[in-house]
Amino acid sequence: MKKSMIALIVSVSTSSLFVFANCTDSKIVKYSYQCPQKTHKIPTKKEKDLDRWRKEVFTFPGGMGALYAICGKRPSMEDSDAIVTNFRTKGPLYAAIFDGHGGKKVAHLASCLLHSYLAKELASKKKIEQAFKDAFSKTDEKLKKTIKDQSGSTVIVALIDGTKLHIANLGDSRAVISENDTAVRITKDHKTSDEKELARIKKAGGFVFNGRFGGSLAVSRALGDFHLKNEKLTNNEPLSNIPDVFSRTITENSDFLILACDGLWDVIKDQDAVDFVKTQFIQKKTVQQITKALVEKAYVEGSSDNISVMIITFGKTGPHTSTSTTTSKTSKK
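Structure (tokenized):
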């Protein structure tokens, strides 16, 4: 498994910068973490929750971005992420957050695989929407052969190529872009409360009980969760692994993009998040400082989940950001 996974990763680009939260090869991994507790003193509950974190800062042609993620009030970190600059050697940025549930294995392994399948699908000259869909499907098939537990993951992916922005989402992780200071939700949450999703589930032979798919899952699309899927995966699974794909043009009115799991969106509204980020930029804060501040705001607002957030700028707010390159730091133990 280890050798095949490495081959997939290396095949994308020999000049790309790879940043993965949870891959297994030391030559590729920038950072891998659990959720350590401080041992040199007895911390408060808030100190424990905020001390278990990871961060990244990255640049790409046309902008820069930052990731900040914390375990928060959960006992373990089930989120993962992947950042690839110069995706496919031609300059696009690939950035993704994987929000795990029921365990960490699916989210962590998917973060090491999805970009490679996407690169292969795009190399075969497929259109962007079909390439994303096939990459998600093949990632899920690979996970099914590898993962034996009942974990699963939602996904939010951004592919930025010049002025072209492509977003794929599965589940309730979300992408929100600021256009002239106005929050525009790009994605659609896949939840059983959505009428179209409920109709799709029923048509495919699934059921919803007490607002949850199969009586246990809050989202209606996910990678993994194989105990809720057919033994042989199909393109018509009630618990779908097929993402929605959205494409739009980045213009001079595009301020920044927020990618985040529901640990943020459950407690902060889209416009409130955009207003908070914009205020921080006006105060000359760096993108990494702002990303951290938004995560901590979600924690203070009552989020009980892991919280993973990326903020990506498009140059308009770039002068207010740091020019430092990608960095990683582990929490003190």
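Confidence is low (pLDDT under 50) at residues 1-20, 23-43, 316-333. Residues 2-320 form a domain with the Phosphatase 2c; domain 1 fold (CATH 3.60.40.10).
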